[in-house]
Amino acid sequence: MITLFYAICLITGLLFTIGCALAGHGFGGHDVDHGDIGTGGHAEAGFDHSGIPGISFFSPMVLASFITAFGGLGIIFSGIEATKSVWVSAPLSVAGAFLIALAVLWLFNLVFSRSQSSSEARVASLVGMTASLLSPIPENGVGEIAYVQGSTRYTAPARAEKGLPLAQGQTVRITRVVGTQYFVEPVN
Asked: At how many degrees (to 10) do helices 2-26 and 60-79 cross?
């Protein structure tokens, strides 16, 4: 009877994991107002609102791995003569499932923390860099520049430092950044 319970846990955990993967792939839209939740309202982030990249122990993925491991280990332990008793197999299964869930948590947090990076360039290091004008800057107006930093190409709105018009395709130097506005001057 207890083996049936372990089998149900194993199958339920596997089906839940497969269902989440399919539902996340098919219904993974992000057009929802998440309010002021640090995890952005993502279910895979679990019950954690710290805003720190990664997942919590209460994420569906970690909980599913716990249930799956509990069922699988329970079947294994109940099949061994020395651990056949439910009083031995259940605690061993819980302990093993807890360790496996912690391993999954550690692994995914490691992956998430290493893959998190900002797509924004460091503004302080932009001053003095050269850029190309994608669109002309009219007198006292705004155009668009493109620059490369860290092997990544960025675009930004730009104004001429002295308010003079600058032609498209011209090479310019970034002199300062104020908010999201880049000020440039022509490179002679």
From this structure: 150
Is the model's pLDDT at 59 over the cut of 50?
A: yes
Contact 92, 65 (CB under 8 A): no
Q: Which domains does the chain have, with CATH numbers?
A: 2-115 (no CATH), 123-186 (2.40.50.140)
Strand runs labelled E in the chain:
130-135, 143-149, 152-160, 171-178, 181-186
> pTM of the full predicted structure?
0.51
Helix or strand or coil: residue 83? helix
Average pLDDT over residues 165-175: 93
Burial of 113-137, coded b for 16+ CB within 10 Å and e otherwise, reads eeeeeeeebeeeebeebebbbebeb
Tokens of 181: 């506005």
Sole residue written with tokens 């998430």: 112
DSSP class of 181 = E
What is the residue whose two structure tokens read 């880049």? 182
Q: How confident is the model at residue 184 (pLDDT cuts 50, 70, 90)?
A: very high
Contact by Cβ (8 Å): 130, 171: yes
